[in-house]
């Protein structure tokens, strides 16, 4: 029974009152079972703290708190336990994240048992809250440097709170209300007559893992909670709990629990969320659901679950209750759009990916005329960039003509050009045009690989021009589909290998792809990935090619390609002469090289352009670089010394060193 109970509590922390009620009723009949229960739970709590299973440890503490309410454990022994946990906050050598976690453990238990403490141990409760207040106001080092990078919005008009500070403020309001709250599940109240007759157990002493024994463990990092909706956004007949009200914390905790349990099953998750909302008909739970889902989706450094999961759940909610959720989602999207100028780049990119997918499930219907302000601002302004990237993603999921028909004519400047290839050797006056004609005839005539290679070798042109001509011919002939171009590249791979003699020739191949498919970012991405897999180009050359296009660095596709290149390099093994496998460069080395390339283009940009308060190009490049670093925290932690050196070497680059210093402070 106890083993099953531990598993249930770990996955259902907001249901601990149910399990505590069951245990309390059993304890009424069997006192020994109650003693075994508290001993087992305390051993499990110590074990989870030693293993670094933070969520499981917090769930067990919540159950122990509810055991006091169910008259199984004594009030005094729980107070001793909470004070013991809070002693960690006084450790001089403890890390900030270790202190914060133990403070959070204590704070999260107080809403459950605060009223019981208030009625029976008021002075002890006041002493406990004073210790917490001392920690939060004086002992706790300001987390601003760590939290600065996690802000979804760069200004203070949109409400966003550090999670521990927010919970502390909610607890203070609860204390002012004499620890009375109305939203927590308390089934033990119905059995008060029976539970009050039980003999209670003192909790055994807990042995906390010392700081030196858990240096290998990483405690949860700071995170931000932001708000999308104001109280007035809820319908008049529903009440949206205030952000500093403990009700908001309880409702959101229930939503987060359901999301953790069912995020992989969109239909089940949506049904469970709706069922939870139905249990609180007086509250605007639907607004809280959308706010939590989008809050986690846009959370920095990354979303807790796959971004596609959030989108799938929101779509399912809109299908189940179209009259409610479709309107709330539209309301949230409009709020996000009005704040795009202040949104972090990583969050904006995720907003693009989610909303394009969302629109694709609802026939791309949207009130586009409400967003026409984005057509009257700078092309690199966040609202213009968002809409442009949104159109690109929608066209990938549909086709260009369909999207063009749906949006007003005023958006013409933000629509991508037709994704047509550009074959420059149609101009017969260009150097290499004669070779291009010969190659086109040979490839269309299905000449052998040896004959085609002979044509290229016989041409009196420099090596890079030969590569450019050959690549452009291959891309021109295979322009009808992915299948066509892949078949040609695979057939003529020996010719490409023959022409490749180092980084310059590899760059020439990539430049040819960029020229022919300049109007089709998706095809550039796919073709460069194919060249990597065929081992015709190296990851380092791809990075050179990406940062060799500074004007394109503000767009998403190049950074997506960079991320894909790094991911490919994690698992690839290069084969030389079809015999000897060679390990490719480590991802950390490639990341450092990418940061150096980025520093170079940023410095050149600062030298060649006048510095303005709104340097949108630098904003996009730095933001996407930070997003790339966030995706590789573990790798960067191992090479933080080299990253520090890069920041020192490029100190004349005004904004990059500061970004690197803040990032390193966060990941330590």
Automatic annotation (TrEMBL):
Domain MIF4G-like type: 268-408, 423-580
GO molecular function terms noted in the UniProt entry: mRNA binding; RNA cap binding
Location of the MIF4G domain: 1-173
One GO cellular component, as annotated: nuclear cap binding complex
GO biological process: 7-methylguanosine mRNA capping; mRNA export from nucleus; nuclear-transcribed mRNA catabolic process, nonsense-mediated decay; regulatory ncRNA-mediated gene silencing; RNA splicing
Alphabetical UniProt keywords: mRNA capping, mRNA processing, mRNA splicing, Nucleus, RNA-mediated gene silencing
Protein name stated in the entry: Nuclear cap-binding protein subunit 1
Organism taxonomic ancestry: Eukaryota, Metazoa, Ecdysozoa, Arthropoda, Hexapoda
